[in-house]
Write a structure and sequence with these properties.
- The protein has a single domain (3-90), classed as lambda repressor-like DNA-binding domains (434 Repressor (Amino-terminal Domain), Orthogonal Bundle).
- It contains 7 helices and no strands.
- The protein has helices spanning 3-13, 18-25, 29-36, 43-52, 57-61, 65-81, 84-90.
- The longest helix has 17 residues, at 65-81.
């Protein structure tokens, strides 16, 4: 899966328009469209893009299916682990 495809998929999952995502990152809607169609992303926007889409940077940049799966699993495990102390306190 390409980076552009992932951006579009994650954006749609969060129910954001290209314009809304562009505003959150500080770029134009045309820029988001370009990224989704495969144009390169300037390094200064990658971190903000990943943060806004709530995904690891590595996931956006990795195109190897097995690596993507490993990164997603690692991210989900770490994200879940960070919530454990809060859950334990509530019990």
């Amino acid at each position: 899966m390409t980076t552009g495809t992932k951006i579009k998929m994650l954006r749609e999952k969060k129910r954001l328009s290209q314009e809304e995502l562009a505003h959150a990152i500080g770029v134009t809607q045309t820029t988001i469209g370009n990224w989704e169609s495969g144009k390169s992303i300037k390094h200064e926007y990658i971190s903000k893009l990943a943060e806004t889409l709530d995904t690891p940077i590595d996931y956006l940049l990795t195109t190897q299916p097995k690596q993507v799966l490993k990164l997603l699993l690692k991210y989900l495990i770490l994200k879940s682990a960070s919530k454990l102390p809060i859950i334990c306190l509530m019990i």
